[in-house]
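Backbones bend. To wit:
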Amino acid sequence: MNDCIISASILNANYFDIKSDIQKLKEANIKWLHLDVMDGMFVQNISFGIPFIKNLKQNISSMVFDTHLMIEKPERYIENFIDAGSDIITFHYEATDDIKKCIDMIKSKNILAGISIRPVTPVEEIYEYIKDVDLVLIMSVNPGFGGQKFIEATYERVKKVKEYSLKIGKKIYIQVDGGVNKDNINLLIESGVNTVVIGSAIFKGNIVDNVNNIINSKR
């Protein structure tokens, strides 16, 4: 159970003292940094972009940059986000008319490719792409804002993706993003999740203590 990776979402970090927050993540042995990129079009909110990620990478290259593109037509910028230092690029199934092109662009740069779906999108719609990607991100809240309540139907959606990946013999990261905390992480792992995105539950309060509480809650 303890091999479930925590990807810390800096959407909830203190941007005025982000170096300190990231140092605390390192102290808590967090290896993955989740970067939510929002364009104000695919989702209503706007976050940060390529220069921000590039500057972060130059200072903390030891962490895995898990970049989640919540943007329209991600194929326009995939190469830029890779050049900025992303180790994983996840784009939304609903955001592009050319899913294969997005996957091929990412894989051609020898980094991991992920595909994500909103809570309203049936997981069956992405089955045909699972054989080609490295990660499936199942949103457990509506994308665009942090601090939302976890959607309970997520467990069954995870199980379906897990069952299908086993059926075709494809090993993938199954990731959940939204409302994850120490109270639901065990059920997520039991459902088939092997990486979770956590924001508010890490950054609200003492980061090191929060991470340790989450890790210690795993059984």
About this structure: The longest strand covers residues 32-38. The beta strands are 5-9, 32-38, 64-70, 88-92, 112-117, 135-139, 173-177, 195-198. The mean pLDDT is 94.
